[in-house]
Amino acid sequence: MLLLLTLLFKELLFHGASTVGEKNQDLQVLRPHHLTTEEPLTFHLIQISSFANHSWAHTQGSGWLGELQTHRWNGVLGTIQFLWPWSRGNFSKEELKNLQALLQLYLHAFPRVVQAFASQFQFEYPFEIQISFGCRMHAGKASGSFLNGAYQGSDFLSFQGNSWKPSSGAGSQAQNVCNVLNHYRVIKEIVQILLSDTCPRFLSDLLEAGKAELERQEKPEAWVSKGHSPEPGRLLLVCHVSGFHPKPVWVMWMRGEQEQRSTQQGDIMPNADGTWYLRVTLDVAAGEVAGLACRVKHSSLEGHDIIIHLDGYSILLILICLTVIVTWVMLVMVGSWFKKRRSQHPRLQEFRKSPLLGKEIMAQKHILEEMENKPKPTLMTFVLPCT
Ligand SMILES: *[C@@H]1O[C@H](CO)[C@@H](O)[C@H](O)[C@H]1NC(C)=O
Ligand SMILES: *[C@@H]1O[C@H](CO)[C@@H](O)[C@H](O)[C@H]1NC(C)=O
Questions:
Q1: Under 8 Å CB-to-CB from 297, ≥6 apart: which residues?
Q2: Are the CB atoms for 176 and 158 separated by under 8 Å?
Q3: Residue ranges making up the domain that contains 205
Q4: Average pLDDT over residues 296-305
Q5: Bigger pLDDT: 216 or 13?
Q6: For this UniProt entry, which segments traverse the membrane (predicted)?
Q7: Are residues 206 and 88 in the same domain?
Q8: Band of the pLDDT at 380, cuts 50, 70, 90?
Q9: 300 FRET partner, CA 20 to 30 A, in 20, 76, 276, 318?
């Protein structure tokens, strides 16, 4: 029980592991007027602990300012890694050292305590526990904090007001865990301090210090392609938007000014350089492709939306197809002309052997074959079958 207390103490110290509720940002993304709305900003810590059996566990910890990772827990050295020059906020060395010591203690004790209680809590190996802890700010003011725990990927419990509450749907198992946790008043008090004081102070510092990074504007690139046909006679049009920052973006398939309601938006995925990528698709009848365009709104574009028309690319494609066909016809003609000449003038046999000409033709043939086999997405081509 003492260990559990330590564990909880640690958890609290781990001042910041919480995400949740970020899904609705993705939904808002489809509305252009949200581009300018101030989103509440969060700082949260995420802990992911995997338990393979009663003697093996692994824990990862990270800190996030909104969508941007700012901290990583080095489990080998037991230290906080600051991923940006400004990741310390303006917390003093002393305070950061204390927080690091608390995290060390907590992350050391957590797996032991969980394993000790696994059978009482009916945790079945292998299992995974995720904890998110953090706070949010809106329009410069602290606007709430959270500590949520998940078991096997599902909401399990949270800290509400001054006690642990099971998540709805987590059943008697979570109730049982909360009953045990709620006995530890000191731990609850520590959690409250971390949630209501430490986290908001740190968030406000980070927001100030990391302002330039958060406000970085990167313009998206967009291109369109054809996905796998969902069924005969239909086309899946794909609009790719990549390299933008910040995350809110609006992408829609349009016919003129008409938004295509059946536009499907994927998840916004991170690129390695901290920018974002989004894929937006439209399933249309093959005959209804003309006039469609993909439209992108993003804060970095300052109102100059990117519009990619399918028509333009269809014409480009037709031109490419024509070029290929004409070149082929010419090649065939040249080929048969050579054959004829060869049979008429045996001396040309020598000429034919000239490595230069043979190579050139082969190279050209190669290029043509490549063009046929894989149209280059760099051209942002909308690829229709060349028939
Ligand atoms: C526990 O799990 C780890 C990792 O999967 C494995 O290497 C180890 O052999 C397991 N130990 C026992 C006692 O099952
Ligand atoms: C550190 O943060 C506090 C509270 O937000 C603020 O009052 C103080 O001016 C900051 N100090 C520096 C050096 O930025």
A1: 32, 35, 249, 250, 251, 305
A2: no
A3: 39-215
A4: 95
A5: 216
A6: 313-338
A7: yes
A8: very low
A9: 20
pTM of the model as a whole: 0.65
Q: Which listed ligand is nearest to 137 at the C-alpha?
A: 2
Of residues 23 and 68, more confidence is placed in 68
DSSP string, 195-232: IIIIHHHHHHHHHHHTHHHHT--B--EEEEEE---SST
Considering the domain architecture, whether residues 88 and 230 belong to the same structural domain is answered as no
The rounded mean pLDDT for the chain is: 80
Q: What is the atom index within ligand 2 of the atom nearest the CA of 201?
A: 5
**Which amino acid makes up residue 126?**
P
Q: Are residues 210 and 226 in the same domain?
A: no
CA of 201 to the centre of ligand 2 (A): 9
**pLDDT tens digits, 318-336:** 556 566 767 777 777 777 7
The reply to whether 167 and 205 lie within a common domain is: yes
Question: Ligand 2: does its nearest atom lie under 6 Å from the Cβ of 205?
Answer: yes
Statement to judge: residues 133 and 269 lie in one domain: no
Residue 260 lies in a domain: yes
Helix, strand, coil fractions of the chain, as percent rounded to 5: 40, 30, 30
The verdict on 266 and 161 lying in the same domain is: no
Question: Are 192 and 167 in a shared domain?
Answer: yes
Pocket lining: 53 vs ligand 1, CB cutoff 6 Å: yes
